[in-house]
Write a structure and sequence with these properties.
The structure is a single chain. A hairpin with a 2-residue loop joins strand 7 and strand 8. This protein is 33% helix and 26% strand. Helix 1 packs across helix 3 and helix 2 crosses helix 3. The protein contains 5 helices and 9 strands, in the order E-H-E-E-E-E-E-H-E-E-H-H-H-E.
């Protein structure tokens, strides 16, 4: 991985994409790294496309722009696998982590992706009852999967980040979702 690892998250409003980017940044910080997280979205409404960004480094991060050439691409909504433009700007040797029940070998990617990781985060959210307005919220399962597939944050830091951010039963079920994502992510190196 490069000196500053840049992660671009794609999802839809209501899936917890912004919180996921912040949880990963906080977990990396708890592991002693420098990090930042920030969202990009238009009209705030459920179901609208949302992007969020996370940067992680062993040194202070001075860059404050959007991420145009990510080292890691996270697709929180499975429908983005069908979008050719989602891969725009992805660096050679990038890692893709996708919310899909597909095996990594069944995911079509452009050349240059060195690692594909998949997790059925929506299925996990439904199984655990992680819903808002009846819709599944796969964000914490994705945070666990991203941490495992990239090695950018330890499991202990992910758990602490969730417990520091959420409380009560919400914290417990989200820790469980993240642990399932961490343990069940399937990884294929090209």
């Amino acid at each position: 991985m490069p000196e500053v690892v840049e992660i671009r998250w794609h999802g839809r409003g209501g899936q917890g994409v912004v919180l996921a980017s912040r949880l990963l940044a906080k977990a990396a910080f708890l592991d002693g790294k420098w990090s930042q997280a920030f969202p990009f979205f238009g009209a705030e409404r459920r179901g609208a496309p949302v992007m969020a960004f996370t940067r992680i480094s062993d040194r202070p991060i001075r860059l404050r722009s959007q991420i145009y050439n990510p080292d890691v691409l996270v697709l929180v909504d499975p429908m983005f696998l069908e979008s050719a433009t989602v891969f725009d700007g992805v660096r050679e040797g990038a890692v893709l982590i996708a919310n899909t029940p597909k095996e990594p070998s069944d995911v079509e990617t452009p050349s240059g992706i060195r690692r594909v990781a998949t997790i059925d985060a929506t299925g996990l959210a439904l199984e655990l009852g992680l819903r808002v307005a009846g819709l599944p919220v796969p964000n914490t399962a994705m945070v666990g999967a991203v941490a495992k597939a990239t090695g950018l944050a330890s499991w202990e830091a992910v758990e602490k980040a969730i417990r520091d951010t959420l409380s009560g039963k919400g914290a417990e079920v989200n820790v469980e979702a993240a642990k399932e994502g961490y343990d069940k992510v399937r990884i294929l190196d090209h």
